[in-house]
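As a warm-up, study this chain.
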Amino acid sequence: MDKFYVTDCEGPLSINDNAYEIADFFLPDGGEFFSILSNYDDILVEKQIPNYMAGSTLRLILPFFKAYALTERDLIEFSEDHIHMIDGAYTTIKYVQQLMPSYIVSTSYNQYIEALCTKTGFNYNNTYSTILNLDEYELDMNDQDKLLDIYQNILLDSSFENLNHIFDDIISKMPINKLIESVKPVGGIGKRDAIEDIIKKNNYKPENLMYSGDSITDVEALEYANENDGIAISFNGNIHSISAANISIASDNNLILAVIANIFKDNGTTGVYEFIYEYNNDPLGAILSNMDDNYITQQLLLSKPSIKLVDENKINDLVDESKQTRNKVRGVNISNLG
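Now compare it with the structure written out below.
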């Protein structure tokens, strides 16, 4: 009957969007370019194309990383130097790992997740991420020039039709497309598959799952936890994650996840729901009666997180509330990514 915790990384734990930040740092107008690809990726997900993985922006950007001569060493060094955790995350990671088995399932590149684990003390063996072997693929000068021209073309014409033509009719026929095909993003269905792998390997029960995420790549994982009567938390989430969750949290401090994990461990899903009802009537009393760690209690009374059960009739209100905090914590550019 052991409970277990699975979390997305970027959003619930860190304020980074590592791939966006890499593009923004190394590529000209890279943040804008990444956002264009992210929007294209979101549209493809919403079209429900068979076998298409949410989070494929991390694949689509790769030919352009090669065109601008990025290496795995660049990704590693940048990631090590640019890890920014949400307030409370270090304490939450340590606390929850002592409560129950804990896992990170992230769409982020493995280079970033490994760097984050080194910095936070999280067990890298308990992580799933998008494996990238960037250096294994070569790019000749002619294709490099072609991709640099394509890059500028996309910045000038970001329409869905233009991007579809470029990826389906041009890049798909270039040797570098093998790099795209080699990468399997851990997003969407990939995150659900990771959870099922965790359950199978450890003989867990699905109803003992607590999951937290914030974006379109978390939808299937949140739905899995929700449908199996576990805890599905959208943490500073967008409309995609809130619609799939049973709990929506808006907070600039993630220590509230430690409180919920503590309650879930001892009292299950019903106990968490009872806490949320109590919290919305008496925040001070609810925290004090459910957490014996003075530091966590003090921090939460200062940050005053919003914790709501997801009601489909109030989705828009929850999205508006979450968006304000999401923009504040992660910045508007990252916040607007799917």
